[in-house]
Amino acid sequence: MSRTAAHSDLFAEHYVDLRAEGAAARVAAGLRERGLVTLDGLNGRAAVLELAARYLDVTPHRDSDPDGLTVLHNTHQHAGRSGFAGLGSGSLSPHTERSGLLFPPRLMLVACARPAEEGGASLLTDGHMVYADLALSHPDAVEALSEDSAGLFGGQDGVLAPVFRLTPDQQITVRLRLDDLVRWHPLVTRHIRALTEALARHQQPLLLDAGEGFLLDNTRWLHARTAFTGPRRLYRALGNPHHSLLPEGSATSSFGQEAVSVLETA
């Protein structure tokens, strides 16, 4: 995959120039309306921390440094360890971050400090498109994946939760992992193939260069990664938004009509 091919419409479609007047309002609008903004000018750790402080109450992670940032790189020490694949150089399957928590962080900021020599593309998937796809093609899968006991996420100390959750105010959130730290309810297992095929249909590559990044709604967008070689280095911050920046989920009526329309005319 070439850098040009992977750094294509997705970056341009969601791009906000942080240096332009009104950038903060456009970031907030992009997150509320589409759940994703792409950014540049994140040159160095201090710039990433400064941006994170504008929008997130940064929460610590098992692998984060004292300032809350996690440095994602190949440590050469975590091969084969469950839950540590992000610290290797292999591919990652689509997932939402911290799926084993009762309340996962709402936002994730990722910024590239150093790209890989080869590979290392981020693969982003709009969970609303996946939901709409399955609602059209496999409604029985949507029903099963929306059950409260669809999966046990995070191992023995994790949480039982649905993949697609309808909130009391009729909004949808997404929770997913596909590694060995999820156990599916027996009635869900037969629908995982349809789910993974839908994820693949809507996955979009984004190969970041140094100083580029993205901020996404972790309850809407799934992220993955291609394998890479070389000293790839990313910064990641997780947290919840300031000042009710985002409503929980996105209205089923608004995202459903748009996504279904796109799928029916594709």
Provide keyphrases for this structure:
9 helices; disordered N terminus; alpha+beta; 266 residues; globular; six-stranded antiparallel sheet; Double-stranded beta-helix
> Major sheet: size, sense and barrel closure?
6 strands, antiparallel
User: What is the strand tally?
Assistant: 18
**What kind of oligomer do you see?**
single chain
From the 3D structure, determine the CATH topology. Double-stranded beta-helix
CATH architecture: 4-Layer Sandwich
Average of pLDDT: 89
Question: Number of DSSP helices?
Answer: 9
The percent range for helix content is: 25-40%
**CATH-assigned homologous superfamily:** Clavaminate synthase-like
Give the amount of beta strand, in percent. Answer: 25-35%
Give the class-level CATH name: Alpha Beta
CA-CA gap between termini: 24 Å
Q: How many domains comprise the coordinates?
A: 1
* Unreliable spans: 1-7, 250-257
Radius of gyration: 18 Å
Topology:
Layout: H1 3-6, H2 9-13, H3 23-33, E1 36-39, H4 45-55, E2 56-58, E3 70-72, E4 92-95, E5 107-114, E6 118-119, E7 122-126, H5 127-137, H6 139-145, E8 151-153, E9 159-161, E10 164-166, E11 171-174, E12 182-184, H7 186-189, H8 192-201, E13 203-206, E14 213-217, E15 221-225, E16 228-229, E17 233-241, E18 250-251, H9 252-265
Antiparallel strand pairs: 1-14, 2-17, 3-17, 4-15, 5-14, 5-17, 6-16, 7-13, 7-15, 8-9, 8-12, 10-11, 11-18
Helix pairs in contact: 5-6, 5-8, 5-9
